[in-house]
Design brief:
Number of strands of chain A: 7
Largest interface: A-B, 42 and 53 residues
Radius of gyration of chain A: 16 Å
Structural class of chain B: alpha/beta
Order of helices and strands of chain A: EHHHEHEHEHEEEHH
Largest sheet of chain A: 4 strands, parallel
CATH superfamily of the largest domain in chain B: Aconitase, domain 3
Shape of chain A: globular
Number of domains of chain B: 2
Distance between the termini of chain A: 48 Å
Low-confidence stretches of chain B: none
CATH topology of chain A: Aconitase, domain 4
Number of helices of chain B: 15
CATH class of the largest domain in chain B: Alpha Beta
Oligomer: heterodimer
Strand order of the largest sheet of chain A: 1-2-3-4
Number of strands of chain B: 18
Strand content of chain B: 15-25%
CATH superfamily of chain A: Aconitase, domain 4
Distance between the termini of chain B: 57 Å
Strand content of chain A: 15-25%
Shape of chain B: globular
CATH architecture of chain A: Alpha-Beta Barrel
Structural class of chain A: alpha/beta
Largest sheet of chain B: 5 strands, parallel
Mean pLDDT of chain A: 95
Strand order of the largest sheet of chain B: 4-3-2-5-6
Mean pLDDT of chain B: 97
Helix content of chain A: 25-40%
CATH architecture of the largest domain in chain B: 2-Layer Sandwich
CATH topology of the largest domain in chain B: Aconitase, domain 3
Number of helices of chain A: 8
């Protein structure tokens, strides 16, 4: 497990450059460019189970969803932030990517600390300290638990057409 | 119980008596906008669209504007795929290459009427608050699901109230006002908030309000919204939408806000947002003299007639400085026609401007006007993020049309008041 740490106001252009927005839509196309203008090492060295620890207003800017899709596809365990920008929050939820808003955990993290997440209990352990984060609203939880908005919607439609 | 604009409109759309901030409600948007990203959106749900169809075809507005005319085979194929979808599912509101930038088109075509609820798979969907609509950006996946269900969830936002007083003093403009506000409140200053404008709104033209609302997302806002007044009604009537075609909604006088602030318009001065954050705002004087290689006037922020006119007044009868590329990007075909009829377009072209097709391309580095390493562009667009115009080693400075035009003449960042003095 590695932790990738970045600062405040990381915008969607840094997470995924605008010049690729209309030519890259699938995960195979997105991954080589993920974080390209922020940290060229990220795409090369990221592993499933890694965490992002970031500052405030993470994902601000464009509504492009490639950052959320890419982070989910590489298997990021959770993005732990001081705060998230609104559209990114929704985009990530719709991909089933776990977002943890916990400024104290971000401040507590020191290089080399191990990080353990217990999503169901709403706690995150950073080094030897444990922090809790608030429970998600039911509607958002249901989308995430279904694996994202599309699986959630497909199930809904199947149930609806079966009921007719 | 007194309500804010956001509480009132979301209660209305969710068919509820009252909703409170933080609550999640389900509502059917009146319209949903998508653009070139429609291709990626419909691909996500291709099988389901065949099986279930589009739930509400008349909800879906499509405007091709981001990479127009197609820059390469891939974008051409995307456009073709979108046209086939429009045919297959009888999408009535489709605007092909050349009609304009999506947000301008949505407003010109009368979809963004007072009291309407709109979502769009583009972050600058918040522009329509200029006309008293509740309008906000969503991601592609949300848009794909909306095609199948026709409805989605909204979290009721907390609200801020900004009360304006005084009047802008030219050449200070609406762009200088919104940049100043973002500089003060920071890029996350209104994250997930609805921001209402009160007070001396009548001193701002409809185009000013569009520029301001367009940049709401740059301080994190879910929506920016202006009240409907005489100017709004006149603007809409001029486009064929009389008062019978909409029902304005506005906050109750006694509504309570999480934050209230007052802004004196007469104190606003020309400013620039320096690289690489929109909230890195400084008086233009602090940047005066920095070399510029490219100047961009236009986009969904400042590509309207009054913006082009402000630039033409400065550039008329003069020439762009050697070594400077001036790009002009009108926001719509209608605006371009008006600029041609008024002689504005020819004044700009005579000064050496490159007139680009109506669309978005250079603003996001997707198409045309890409920068080289070490270059600096002064632009009337809404974002100066690193890499935004296609090159991470280039710099973007945001400013008003007057400041960009004045800088194009000198080849360095220039205070638009300098011209007036000399």
């Amino acid at each position: 497990m590695s932790v990738w740490k970045y600062g405040d106001d990381i915008n969607t252009d840094m997470l995924f450059p605008g010049k690729y927005t209309y030519t890259c839509a699938t995960t195979d196309e997105i991954l080589p460019h993920l974080m390209e203008d922020l940290d060229p090492e990220f795409a090369k060295n990221v592993h499933a189970g890694d965490f992002l620890f970031v500052g405030k207003n993470f994902g601000c800017g464009s509504s492009r969803e490639q950052p959320a899709l890419g982070l989910k596809a590489v298997g990021i365990a959770a993005v732990v932030a001081k705060s998230f920008s609104r559209i990114f929050y929704r985009a990530a939820t719709n991909q089933g990517l776990l977002l943890v808003e916990c400024p104290k955990a971000v401040d507590a993290y020191q290089e080399g600390d191990t990080v353990e997440l217990e999503a169901e209990r709403g706690t995150i352990r950073v080094g030897d300290r444990t922090f809790s984060f608030p429970e998600l609203p039911e509607r958002i939880l249901a989308i995430r638990n279904a694996g994202g908005l599309l699986p959630y919607t497909f199930k809904l439609l199947e149930a609806r057409s079966a009921g007719e | 119980m007194p309500n804010t604009f956001a509480e009132k409109i979301l209660a209305h759309k969710a068919r509820r008596e009252h909703v409170a901030p933080g609550e999640i409600v389900t509502a059917k948007p009146d319209y949903m906008l998508t653009h070139d990203n429609t291709a990626a959106i419909i691909t996500k749900v291709a099988a389901q669209l065949e099986q279930y169809g589009v739930e509400r075809p008349d909800m879906h507005i499509i405007v091709l504007d981001h990479v127009v005319p197609a820059a390469n085979e891939k974008s051409a194929a995307n456009h073709k795929k979108i046209r086939a979808y429009v045919q297959r599912h009888n999408i009535p509101h489709f605007f092909d290459v050349g009609r304009g930038i999506c947000h301008q088109v949505v407003m010109e075509e009368g979809f963004a009427l007072p009291g309407k609820l709109l979502v769009g798979s583009d972050s600058h969907t918040c522009s329509y608050g200029a006309l008293g609509a509740f309008a906000t950006g969503i991601d592609r996946t949300e848009a794909a699901a909306l095609l199948l269900t026709g409805e989605t969830w909204f979290k009721v936002p907390k609200s801020y109230k900004i009360t304006l007083k005084g009047k802008l003093q030219s050449p200070a403009s609406a762009k200088d006002l919104i940049l100043t506000l973002i500089g003060r409140m920071r890029a996350d200053g209104a994250d997930y908030r609805a921001v209402e404008f009160h007070g001396a709104v009548a001193t701002l033209s409809m185009e000013d309000r569009m520029t301001i609302a367009n940049m709401g997302v740059e301080m994190g806002a879910k929506i920016f919204v202006f009240p409907v007044d005489r100017l709004t009604r006149e603007w809409l009537s001029g486009r064929g939408f009389g008062p019978d075609s909409y029902e304005p909604i506005w906050a109750d006088v006694a509504a309570t806000y999480e934050k209230e602030l007052e802004v004196d318009l007469s104190e606003i001065e020309p400013v620039v947002a320096l690289p690489h954050k929109v909230d890195n705002v400084h008086p233009v004087g602090e940047a005066v003299g920095q070399q510029v290689h490219q100047c961009l006037i236009g986009t969904c922020t400042n590509g309207r007639l009054s913006d082009l006119r402000a630039a033409a007044e400065i550039l008329k009868g003069k020439k762009v400085a050697p070594g400077v590329r001036l790009l002009v990007l009108p926001a719509s075909n209608e605006i371009l026609q008006e600029a041609m009829a008024a002689g504005i377009a020819s004044d700009l072209v005579a000064a050496g401007a490159v007139l680009l097709p109506v669309g978005c391309g250079p603003c996001l580095g997707a198409h045309q006007g890409v920068l080289a390493p070490g270059e600096r562009c002064i632009s009337t667009a809404n974002r100066n993020f690193k890499g935004r115009m296609g090159c991470k080693e280039a710099e973007i400075v945001l400013a008003s049309p007057a400041t960009v035009a004045a800088s194009a003449l000198t080849g360095v960042i220039t205070d638009p008041r300098q011209g007036a003095i000399s």
